[in-house]
Specification:
The chain is an all-alpha fold and 265 residues long. It contains 9 helices and no strands. Helix content is 71%, strand content 0%.
Length: 265
């Protein structure tokens, strides 16, 4: 029985090269990574910190945020170049490149670097636990981080690297440059945290990125139905984006609109 289950999880990937990349060789690696993450941030981490003072990791967080700004900024620049300048995909059909395409390795490397960044993003929540900032460990936060890692893995496993998902990756890396830059500035200059008026606009651009993803997929489905990118994955992108729009909009209303209404009353 177990061997049959193992065979399902270890079926050959859409791109056979994917198994050579760390974290992509077996589904068990990502599964245990996500389960370990959830167990720590939702259970064990809080018990571990129960009788401890919050750790002073401000310097680590500043370095981490700087690293994320550089990482996401570099990745955004690379994707922007291949997306709009070199144009490895026509904008009206972002189908995964054929195995014999001379730029296939570029597609693989960009996708993999983005995937690794989603794993690195899990540290956000670990830092919250170590600082006892439990109010920041929301359903939206945990769901977003866990889903991004697992979803990218399974998409690569069954569909291959790149393709239409580059739209989300391009928008997401831009958002993360802005977001982690804000976190870095607020960590360096703690007194400015409340005066950084553009914090709420980070949530707005997070919502906008998912609107862009939906519009691009809808455009291709309507005006280029012969595009070879799987229709089911278009609807997966649209569904995930709608869920995130709902969650981020709910967060924005409760964080920035309801408090103002309470004050007015």
């Amino acid at each position: 029985m177990f061997s049959k289950v193992q065979a399902i999880f270890d079926r050959p990937p859409a791109d056979p090269v994917a198994k050579n990349f760390p974290f992509l060789g077996s589904s068990w690696t990502v599964t245990f990574l996500i389960l370990g993450y959830l167990f720590f941030v939702l259970n064990y981490g809080k018990k571990f910190m129960e009788n401890r003072q919050p750790y002073d990791i401000r310097k680590i967080i500043i370095i981490y945020n700087f690293f994320q700004v550089v990482y996401n900024g570099t990745l955004f620049g690379i994707m922007f170049y291949y997306f709009f300048i070199d144009q490895i995909y026509p904008l009206n059909c972002l189908a995964t490149l054929p195995m014999d395409d001379p730029k296939k390795n570029i597609e693989r490397v960009i996708s993999y670097i983005y995937f690794i960044n989603k794993i690195i993003d899990l540290l956000d929540t670990i830092f919250f636990v170590l600082r006892k900032s439990y109010k920041q460990i929301t359903f939206l936060h945990v769901y977003h981080h866990a889903l991004m890692v697992s979803a990218i893995y399974w998409v690569v496993r069954f569909n291959g690297f790149g393709g239409q998902f580059f739209t989300m990756a391009l928008a997401n890396t831009f958002v993360h440059v802005v977001m982690y830059f804000y976190y870095m500035i607020s960590a360096i200059y703690t007194g400015l945290k409340r005066s950084l008026w553009w914090k709420k606009y980070i949530t707005k651009i997070q919502i906008i990125q998912f609107v862009i993803v939906i519009l691009h997929s809808v455009y291709i489905l309507v005006f280029n139905p012969k595009c070879e990118f799987h229709v089911g994955l278009h609807f997966l992108l649209i569904t995930l984006s709608l869920v995130f729009i709902t969650l981020f909009s709910n967060f924005y209303i409760h964080a920035y609109m309801k408090p103002r209404n309470v004050k007015q009353q």
